Fold this protein.
Amino acid sequence: MKRSLIIILFIILTAGITFSQDASKIFEKSVPAVGLISDASENSFGSGFFVNPEIFITNWHVANALSKNVKIKMRDGTVHTGKVILADREKDLAIVNTREKNEHFLKLSYPEKIKTGEKVYAIGNPSTADFKVFEFNFTEGIINNIAVDEFDISVTIINAKVILHSATINPGNSGGPLIDSYGNLIGVNSFYYDKSNNMYFAIHLSELIKILNEEKITYTFSAGDTSDSSFFKNTDSTGFNKNDEVINKKVDKETGLKTYVIFGILLLGIVIIGIVITVLISVAANKNKVVLKGFLIFNEKTYELEKVVFRVGREKNNDLIVEDMEISRNHFEIIRDNYVFNIKDLNSKNGTFVNNIKIQSAILKNNDSIKAGNSTFLFKITNVKN
């Protein structure tokens, strides 16, 4: 029994020593890439880290409290100067371009490998209530949750994917890295809600990668960490996708298609404009044009000769049906030809008379009298401006 207890105690102590050494190695590996950021006034400060020799990452709310020109103090005493080149308020991320190069920078984990329950570490420069700063502080925790939500942190409203973890952070830690047990970056520490319940938040790595890609800023994924993701399998050590050539070809095809579509739309527009101009010219030309209208008056009723051919007779298929037994089934017709109205007898039994003169065909004039059988018609013409 005594021997068993000694063995168990040995295992526990060995595990503790191994963990301590691993954590220490992670800290020593990562801290040369972490800095304390401030400006000339040194009234405000925060944390941050390099993702390549000239690009330093921090929070928007840290950069917003500083002047545009900043200085970055490293653990070995080196001081870099730089300028804030991008600040994304909604994601609480900012990018600083340094004038001097930093030899060390953090490698990125793969966003899809960041899982709840994973052990994590935070490095930063927290301060106490009386502004005593503990530079390059190192804390440990686990990932409690990963979520996409909106958070009001008084200075701004963050709308981003975040990592909820238990590695203690305080004012001054903002902008510092959250790293995994390999020393790879998985998030950017940003804010906390409830210290008693270990509710500390970091901006998820995927949000940072989006911004870096948009700004075409190079970064490096961990060479020793593999992923099944097809996207990351095709990503080289600079963080750019090897499928870019394929994507660019696709973009070129889409651009060509868009060009044809735009050309087609322009051509259609020209055709439509041409039609509109033609119509307007036609309307202008016909604005004062005189139109002749013909009418036939019979039994005190007026019939407008709207058709090109207007027929009169006893049959029901005529335009004007006359119940007169002396009129033929199809007696006569009036044909409109532009400004002229012609009357034509349709081989009627009793003939057609214009102004008491029997006709086979004739040109009608205003107030002409037409007689067919026992019926008399009056022809009228009116001038109408278009």
